[in-house]
Known about the structure:
Elements: E1 4-5, H1 8-24, E2 31-37, H2 41-57, E3 60-66, H3 72-84, E4 90-93, H4 103-109, H5 121-128, H6 137-148, E5 157-161, H7 168-177, E6 181-185, H8 192-197, E7 201-204, E8 222-225, E9 229-230, E10 236-237, H9 242-246, E11 251-252, H10 259-279
Parallel strand pairs: 1-11, 2-3, 2-4, 5-6, 5-7, 7-8, 8-11
Antiparallel strand pairs: 9-10
Helix pairs in contact: 1-10, 6-7, 6-10
Bound molecules: NADP nicotinamide-adenine-dinucleotide phosphate (NAP).
NADP nicotinamide-adenine-dinucleotide phosphate (NAP) binds next to helix 10.
Amino acid sequence: xxxxxxxGKALAAxxxxxxxxxxTKLPQTPSLAVVLVGDDPASAVYVRNKERDCxxxxxxxxxxxxxxxxxxxxxxxxxxxxxRDKRIDGILVQMPLPAHLNGQQVLEAIAPEKDVDAFHPxxxxxxxxxxxxxxxxxxxxxxxxxxxxxIDPAGKHCVVVGRSNIVGKPMAMLLLHADxxxxxxxxxxxxxxxxxxxxxILVSAAGRRGLVTADMVKPGAVVIDVAMNRGEDxxxxxxVDYAAVSEKADYITPVPGGVGPMTRAMLMENTYKAALxxxxx
Length: 281
Ligand code: NAP
């Protein structure tokens, strides 16, 4: 039997509609500042999507496009100006930055209360301590999808493939906080297949097309594919061999239409939360 397809696109649309209704009840429109340095085409697409999400949710989006030769000082100066600007609730600097810029220093310059990506060390620490101000967008989107499909991680064995600061590590943390037993795998894990086969919930965020094959999946597992790779035909695809794994898993996320739209919806949620915090003092 084929797995249930976890429809992130549909759930994200419902979440965004809910945010839109809530935004109309606020005395002021929430606002997100999006900073893009250089002309990387993929980053430009991400920024356009964020602008579209903002407009669907009734969130004001101000766009700061800086030339590729922007210096670290100029970028930090803009971030500091946005930090001080009372009309701005959330600040997002699109990564990756051009190679001559120090992305970590820029992320750390964003005021933690405006850090709607939850990448600032203070917000990362808060997540670890379960005192979060904002939830990290991709892992939070995955937790919302699990909830939507009635999948409770408590007592389950979850395997996260990938240990990046933006996906793998915070994902493992949210699953742990939901009472799962979590294994984190990475490129130096010697027995990836055996580790994955033990997963009740398998989250793959390696960015390696074809990495997760059906023989790595336990029958009846929940398979979450975070990755956004390009296939030989140039189409978007994940890490998971979707057709074969669908026949083995009970639940699976498609790429596109699974985790991606949920990540975007969670950014809108965090921006709404930032506005709410500001308005409530
Ligand atoms: P990243 O920083 O490159 O991290 C990839 C992780 O996967 C690393 O920890 C790496 O291990 C591990 N890995 C790579 N090859 C592996 C292998 N063969 N076996 C086991 N582990 C392996 O990437 P990221 O930023 O976390 O993103 C991961 C993927 O998710 C990318 O495709 C990205 O485009 C996608 N993404 C999607 C969304 C969304 O909303 N859908 C959001 C963010 C990212 P090491 O640490 O040992 O190198």
